[in-house]
Amino acid sequence: MRNILFFVILSHFFLSTAQTDTEVYLFDISTENNELKLTNQRNISNNPGYDNQPSFYNDNIVLFSSTRNGQTDIAAYNIRDNKIDWISNTLEGSEYSPTKIPNQRAISAIRLDTTGKQLLYSYDFKTGKPKVLLENLVVGYHCWYDKDIIVSSVLEDQSLSLVISNLKNKTNATLQKKIGRSLHKIPNSKLISYISKENEQWEIKSLNPISGETKKIINTIPEAEDMYWLLNGTILMPKGNIIYKFNPKTDKNWSLFYTSTDPGLGNITRIATNSISTLLSIVSDVSPERIVQQQLDAYNARNIDAFASTYSKNVKVYYYPNKLSYEGIDNLKKGYASFFENTPDLHCEVKNRIIYGNKVIDEESVLINGKKIKAVAIYEVENGKIAKVTFF
Questions:
Q1: Model pLDDT for residues 134-147, shown as the tens digit of each residue
Q2: CA-based Rg of the chain, rounded to a whole angstrom?
Q3: Which residue, 124, 238, 243, 289, is most buried by CB atoms nearer than 10 A?
Q4: What is the distance of C-alpha 52 from the center of its chain?
Q5: Cα-based distances in Å from 62 to 99, 239, 272
């Protein structure tokens, strides 16, 4: 984004609701001086668009939802062979939250059809053949307690409710309103963990799906949504570029487990480990620098759709220090579409770049029809999109 002389002309674009551009990473978990360490980071999705919700089918295969051909399918990453196989190819819908079904060579996943219908299905691991598991529940997230019992976060009254379903008896029981999306078996126990949002301070609780008994374990990291259990009973919970840890048996409070210093990683959201806690998979928003670079590349290519896709729907553009120039993706795309069309000689080069948290500060040299202009832009990235820009 360049010359302030043309920012005032920007005005129309509708951006449909889209998922954040995310990637799935894999780490080895090793022990050094009796401390757990994360090593050997690698990107296992390497795919533009939405790659999310990893889980382990076994100690060699990571399942996750991945975008291809305009839909989201179930990907199975083979660690040993470093390759991806596709379990589903549902033209009438997309799959989310793929999870191994106990004692079966099959996967369960939430399928959202293009009609808006949302149900939990099973998929044969080899053929991908689907079958509805729960007919009348709009399942958002789920966890298998055993081969017959599913614990789910079900969409009800614009929030999530905790529901226990028995496939054998064909029963569904709602235990609590206002819960989160993170549901997991607690290692070496007959309990499930979930996040309660009944109070202002969210809580991690345990659940006995047979008796219905619940107990508080600890408050969450403030506003953190996701967690996972290591085999030794330690909870891992990410927020920002940090993963925190807490073991109910030995700890009183959360402590630091891992801090990412990789500029390619943004906000860490989902997290999962294999059954023996030797592997850790995380999901990260694309880093702020990568988002800003994508919009710069699209600008130089004069690709209006790719350019606009890097901005949030309610983006705000300011003149320094705080004078609002315009807001909204509608205004942005119309103005830049006209500018790209009517400016045949156009190029921007970054002379200096500073990255500070979610902010990217660029010193730019802009060529417009033979004239060079100097500019400084501060980009603020939220949820994988540029949400605010301030121009000097």
A1: 999 999 999 999 99
A2: 23
A3: 238
A4: 5
A5: 10, 22, 10
Q: What's the token pair of residue 303? A: 């690709």
* Chain centroid to CA 144: 22
Residue 292 phi, psi dihedral angles, 5° rounding:
-65, -40
Under 8 Å between Cβ of 76 and 87: yes
Mean pLDDT in runs of 10 for the chain (392 residues)?
Answer: 30 35 94 88 92 97 95 97 96 96 97 96 97 95 97 94 96 96 97 97 98 97 96 96 95 95 83 97 88 93 93 93 91 91 91 88 93 93 89 90
Contacts 24+ apart (CB under 8 A), 216-222: 217/193, 217/248, 218/246, 218/248, 218/254, 220/195, 221/254
* CA proximity to 153, closest of 126, 120, 127: 120
Residues 6+ apart with CB under 8 A from 42: 25, 26
Query: Residues of the chain with pLDDT > 70: what percent?
Result: 95
Task: List the one residue out of 286, 248, 249, 363 whose CA is nearest residue 19.
Answer: 286
Q: In 3D, which of 269, 190, 162 has the Cα closest to residue 225? A: 269
What is the tens place of the pLDDT at every residue in 339-354?
999 988 899 999 999 9
Task: Tell me which residue of 57, 3, 47, 2 sits closest to 25, measured CA to CA.
Answer: 47
**Burial track 44-53 (b if 16+ CB lie within 10 A, e otherwise):** bbebebbbbb
Q: What angle do CA 154, 157, 163 make, to 5 degrees?
A: 25
User: From CA 23, how far away is CA 45, in angstroms rounded?
Assistant: 6
Note whether 175 and 162 are within 8 A (CB): yes
Give the C-alpha separation, 80 to 94, whole Å: 27
Express each pLDDT in 109-138 by its tens digit. 999 999 999 999 999 999 999 999 999 999
